[in-house]
Amino acid sequence: MSGCCCSTATLAGLQALISGLAEEIEDLAFQQSIKITPLPLTELDVTTLTSSFSEALSDSNPKKYILIENKSDGDIYGSYEGLEDNFKISSGSSLRLDLAAMLGYWDEDIFLRQDTVSVPTFGTILITAFY
Fold first, then answer.
1. What backbone phi and psi angles, to 5 degrees, belong to 114?
2. pLDDT, tens only, 67-83
3. Can you give the pTM of this predicted structure?
C-alpha cells in the first residue's frame, strides 16, 4: 500500500458518504425545480379583440402553466399559432393550460380572438404565466 494514507474500510466509508451526499443534493435540486412563480403578464381590454386572431401573449421565457381569465361579457377563442381555434373560454370563466404536462414547457406566443356569436362588449382578459 505504498502512497495510500487510508485503509480500505476508510475509503469505502468515504465513498458511501459521498454517494449519500450526492443523493441529498439531487433531492434538493428536484425540490427547487418544482417551485413555480406566478407572474401576471397582461390585461387586455376585450374590445381590442376582433374576429381574427391577434397576439395576446408574447413571451419567449419557458412557462409551465398559463392562466387565461375571461372577465368579459362574451366568449373568446385561443390559439397556439394564430391559425385555428385550439380552446374556447366562455364569458366569466378561466382556462389553465397545463403546458408542462403537454410539452414540458411553452416558450411561444398565445393568440386570442372574440367569438362571432357571443361578441364581448366590455371587460378584460387577464393572462398569468407560471414559471
1. -80, 155
2. 999 999 999 999 988 99
3. 0.69
